[in-house]
TrEMBL record:
Organism: Duganella fentianensis
Keywords (A to Z) from UniProt: DNA-binding, Transcription, Transcription regulation
GO BP of this protein: DNA-templated transcription
Protein family per UniProt: Belongs to the LysR transcriptional regulatory family.
UniProt keyword Transmembrane present: no
Pfam families xrefs: HTH_1, LysR_substrate
GO molecular function: DNA-binding transcription factor activity; sequence-specific DNA binding
Protein name: LysR family transcriptional regulator
Entry-linked SUPFAM superfamilies: Periplasmic binding protein-like II, Winged helix' DNA-binding domain
Transcription regulation found in the keyword field: yes
Domain HTH lysR-type: 8-65
Amino acid sequence: MMSDSRLPNFSALRAFEAAARHENFSRAADELHLTHGAISHQVRALERELGLALFERHGKQVRITAAGAQYARQLAKAFADMAAASAALRRSAVHQRLTIAAVPAFAARWLAPRLGGFIERHPAINVVLQTGEQWLADGVDVAIRRADGAYSGWLVEPLMVEMGDLVVSPHYHDGSKGYLMLLPAVAEQRPQVQAFRDWLQEEVTLSQRLSAAQASD
């Protein structure tokens, strides 16, 4: 007989609790993906450890004893408590992880140097920085992108304004704005920058109007 301080085999406890709940070894076997014989063996082993019968057996029929029914209720509560505690830990682990997605250049030059201070202030948070293209994938908490518009399911907040200069060869610096013929190709390479496309359209339109006015003169 086992000592009072030692717990019975956990698999035997699971087998007994399922058998007691169903009052049927075959259904317990189906639930736990075991054979009928395995359930019967586990229950008998538990009975030997405890030193008393948990089921009354009448041929192929089994009926739980009063002591077995009380034990099964206590085990069911213990299993439910363990499941709840495990679920709480899983939720806590998810909440302590912060996944940030950003384009590689921004992540390396601006974001990464500033993450140290955040991690120092919040040591319990595991910060994960992703620089791939799958920034809308499940598991991403914050995405920092150069983009316009709204994204379904995301709260979009402006972070900063990007400033840029147009640099052209001195060959085109003659006041004619002949470099404008090159800009559509540049815009195709940066289609996500709406402000650049808007500026380009305004410049092209203005240039066309000036050319038309000069031609009419």
